[in-house]
Amino acid sequence: MGDRTAILDHGSWSIKAGHASSALSAEADLPPLVTPTTVRVYDVRTKLQFDQIMEDAETVRGGVSKSSGGAGDASLSGGDSVEASANGSYTELGPVQDGVICDWDAMEALWHYIFYEQLGWEKGEEEAVLIAERMLSSSKLQRELTTQIMFEKFNTKGVYMADQARLSLGSYGKVSGCVVDIGHGKIGVSCVADGQLHMPSGDSMPFGGEAFTHFLREAIQARNGREYSVKSAEDLKHECMEVCSSSKAYQSRTASCEEREHILPDGLTVKIGKEALQAGEVCFQPHLFGYKCMSLVDMVHTSISSVADQVMKRLLTESILVAGCGSATRGMEQRVLNELKLAFPPSYSPSILRRPEYMPQTCPMHSAWVGGFIEAKLAFAQNQHITKYDYDEYGPSVVHKKFLL
Ligand SMILES: Nc1ncnc2c1ncn2[C@@H]1O[C@H](COP(=O)(O)OP(=O)(O)OP(=O)(O)O)[C@@H](O)[C@H]1O
Ligand SMILES: [Mg+2]
Question: Which segments carry the region annotation Disordered (predicted)?
Answer without folding.
Answer: 61-81
